[in-house]
Amino acid sequence: MGIVDSLLKTVVNTSYRVEIEGLSKLDFSKPVILAPNHVSILDAVLLACNLPKEVCYVVNTDIAKKYASFLSQRKFITVDPFNSYSIRKIVREVKAGVPLVLFPEGRITTTGGIMKIYSGLGYIALRTGATIYPVTLVGPERTPFSYITDKWKTHLFPKVRIRIGEAYTIPAKEGVSKRIQKEKAGNTVLRTMQTELFYAKEKHHVQLFNEMLDACRLNGPNRMIGEELTQSITYKKLVISTYALGNKLQDLVQQEQRIGTLLPTSLGHTVALFSLFYLDKTVALLNFSMGVQTVLDACETASISTILTSREFIQKANLQVMADALAKHIRVIYLEDVKASISTTDKGKAMVAYVSKQRALKVNPLQESELILFTSGSESKPKGVVLTHSNIYNNIQQVLAMMDMTSKDKFLNTLPMFHSFGLTVGTILPIVTGIPVFFYPSPLHYKVIPEIAYDRNCTVLFGTSTFLAGYARTAKPYDFYAMRHVVAGAEKLKDEVRQLWMDKFGIRVMEGYGTTEASPILSLNTPLQHKKGTVGQFLPGIRYELEKIEGIAEGGNLWVDGANVMKGYLFHGKGFEPREGYYDCGDIVTVDDEGYISIVARKKRFAKIAGEMVSLNLVEQLVTEVVQDTRLAAVTTGDPRKGERIYLFTSTPITMREIKEYVIAKGFSALLVPSKIVEIEELPLLGSGKVDYVTLKQWAEQETPSKR
After folding, report:
1. Coil, strand, or helix at residue 467?
2. Which of 71, 232, 456, 525 could cross-link with 510 by S-S, CB 3.0 to 4.6 Å?
């Protein structure tokens, strides 16, 4: 290496504190292509300073003219992207054994994420059998040399990481058209680049308070990060408030590791949450919509003896009966009392901690910070799902590796924070990334929420199919004019809801899938990767297996593993049980050859009638086709003769005969016809907006003949 090269490498790597991983993986004894993501003009300089000198760079003709002096120091091939001869020239070089660096996106990102992948790399790999090494750059996108300087705060010398991933090939397949092979090759490259982007950002032993401090430094202390109807908060105010409240709470909860919160989706709950993270306490977020006994059971399950709540919230939510009942067994701390006790001296100490850039704590490499959410399953007592801060942080990075979001976006979070959807995506993702969020305490205010979206220029909305239907029915056509991403999860997105959003607002709702145990997101449709009727592709870093279920011809029971999957369960009266191996999602799914997932049904959402497996989801779907615009739900109870029978609860009158005629006409078995139809005004819902099947099953069992 010459003196100039050596000097340039020293200056660049020192200035950007470059960390390179995987250089020893490179093997140039066979045809090789290095495929980096493209985040800034600086990328080529960083790669040239750190990759072996024999590497040859594929450069656009226009770019070559601009940077001729620099390129003269390295081997390069100029190509015209609109000239097919250029691709043939690259193929010859690869076959000749020249290791190439080729940017698959063909352009510098303008979103901050991976953009569209052109077919060139896939075609070259198919023609040459070359080994592809994915190369991921993280950091240059925050420099003034990126194309997203209008979307994120830039830094002259941010830390840069270069990660070389595991090598892979794209073998040619006989009997498959070249067009399809190139298409599949492009998908393989895209999925690999997204996965490698996640692995480059994956962290272990995360402490979310520390991540919030890092976000403050990266995005600037005066950046407005949170809003609600009556106030807003900057990073500076959030950090200072967190220190002040945390220091006061320290004396009150010093001897306790697990603390419950009984609070709505709000700035106050966010400050309380990060204050407890600052103290490295395990926060248990309690579901106040489930009733007094369930909350008490949850506290027993997690051994909680202290709860943080708010008098204002208790009053507005009409929860005084619950608060009084809890106070008989558990110490209840009201945030208003703690706030009133914070003196001028306390505020001064918090300011000093902020100015000195004090970190929350030193991370213990032998122990992960945790929080607890509770499932509303069919068990008589709630289960505690123990998620680590790393689980949540990594799920955020998995989502961001697939879906572009920037500081120009604004979240509208109406989902409860005791629900993993509202906590991870609606609260922690914005805070640790620098994307502003507007908090609203109830998802049920269907007339108010569209007005907020319009008035506050919100661009990202996550919700359930039920909630999205409610917003769409009451909103004016222009209320969601600013929305870039609307994502549905937690329950199946109904076709009529998807179509309503498209017809009324011109917005394509993206459907995803997840579970509380996965922090929560497992798969996602995005503008770049979308297939209607599916819940998208698995997030990067998710490993899965399908277990064959007897009696179910299509698909299998889904088991998953990944950095976002829970640490384990807390069982009532039994304590903690760690997760071992893959997690059983309990959903029957299919995965097509492009990786798109379709949910067939919950494993528990099958009835075994006369020895045959009957999907309750299919029952609901068929009845919905008979009676438009209705809310209905099917559950099972025991039957002494057939094994199980189906109860249909509906808000619209319908007869068994109408259902049977339609089912038979569609070519389905008469076993799909419910045994009994129960007409009710409204279906019971969980706090997440999903149908409360547990309550419906209890109602059905009270009427079952075998129970009489």
Report:
1. helix
2. 525
Separation CA 512–CA 192 (nearest Å): 20
Longest dimension (CA), the chain: 92
Any residues with CB less than 8 A from the CB of 584 and at least 6 apart, and which? 557, 558, 559
Q: Give me the phi and psi of 199, to 5 degrees please.
A: -60, -30
Would you state the pLDDT for residue 378? 45
Q: Compute the distance between CA of residue 593 and CA of residue 597 in angstroms, rounded to an integer.
A: 10
Angle (nearest 5°) at CA 472 between 468 and 474: 125
Q: Which residues are catalytic?
A: 38
Domains of the chain: 3-200 (3.40.1130.10), 202-394+418-424 (3.40.50.12780), 610-707 (3.30.300.30)
With the C-alpha atoms ordered 314, 320, 322, 327, is the resulting torsion angle positive or negative? positive
pTM to 2 decimal places: 0.87
Residue 271 and residue 228 in contact, taking contact as beta carbons nearer than 8 Å: no
Are residues 295 and 262 in contact, defined by beta-carbon separation less than 8 angstroms? yes
- At 77, give phi and psi (nearest 5°): -120, 130
How far, in Å, CA of 33 to CA of 78, rounded?
Answer: 16
With cut-offs at 50, 70 and 90, classify the pLDDT of residue 25: very high
Q: What is the rounded CA–CA span in Å between residue 241 and residue 269?
A: 12
698 pLDDT above the threshold of 50? yes
pLDDT at 705: 42
pLDDT of residue 366 exceeding 50: yes
Instruction: Answer whether 156's CB lies under 8 Å from 94's CB.
Output: no
For the chain, give the mean pLDDT. 89
